[in-house]
Design brief:
Blueprint: E1 6-10, H1 14-25, E2 34-39, H2 45-58, E3 66-71, H3 77-93, E4 95-100, E5 103-105, H4 109-119, E6 126-129, E7 149-152, E8 160-163, H5 164-167, H6 177-181, H7 184-190, H8 197-205, H9 213-223, E9 226-230, E10 235-237, H10 276-302
Parallel strand pairs: 1-2, 1-4, 2-3, 6-9
Antiparallel strand pairs: 4-8, 5-10, 7-9
Amino acid sequence: MKLAPIILFVYNRPWHTKLTIEALQKNELAKDSELFIFSDAPKNVNAQQNVNEVRQYITSIQGFKKITIIENNINKGLANSIIEGVTNIINQYGKVIVLEDDLISSPYFLTYMNEGLEFYKNNPKVLSITGFNFSSKQIKFPDYYKNDVYTNIRPMSWSWGTWKEQWLNVDWKVTDYKDFISSFKKKKKFNQGGSDLTGMLEAQMSGKLDSWYVRWCYHSYKKEKFTIYPRISLINNIGHDNSGVHCCEDIENIYSHTELSNQHHFLFSKEIKIDMKIIKQFNNVFDLPLKSKIKYFIKKLLGI
């Protein structure tokens, strides 16, 4: 099996970047994997020092088969950086594993991702693979469910992998947006992947949001594709601490957890089937931040 290259996008978080790299170095396939690091330029003078620290650190990284660093001279923003960076590498290698600078991986994350990319490479219904899942406290699998992975209608940005054939077909301009946004039926169907999706797409198209991810989700919905998730997460997101450009500290910190899989061999399922009991729980996690914030502000108003 030819290993997929790893793409890591970094910006201005030296501490997070260091933890992300240190965890990735402990992966059993790290020494055999190529690593591409894309470093975006500072958006303003306030970001300059941290960007410099990140760039100084990444030049010292070892432990991979080959390391290539691409430093932007101008700030492209996360969306353009990811779209351009992934397109460049996937055109060369045919498949990729993508991380951002706030993701702590299990030592078997690369094993899972490479095995998954190999297993599903000829299945046109599978858009992507992710190593992330919410904790067992947030998603409780039914007793009858025994698989190591499950199928979801929503892609995940907190670690993912895909193939050239899937990535190059995305309409990043969302040329049918007017037709979509005027259809209640289409918006309702899109929101089956999470009640936040249509609002995110509206914000993107109106210029209030800079997101590659919501357009990736829209492509998945439009083409009726699926993403494969692990039953137990191989990724821990440490970015919800108000340090990221696109993240903020969640009221109840529901996205962070320490439950990482120690599994080193994975049984993938050829059956691409949605279990709505699992999907409902998954979607409820995305709905929780809004509910939490409403409760928080009510308590503030009441002086609690």
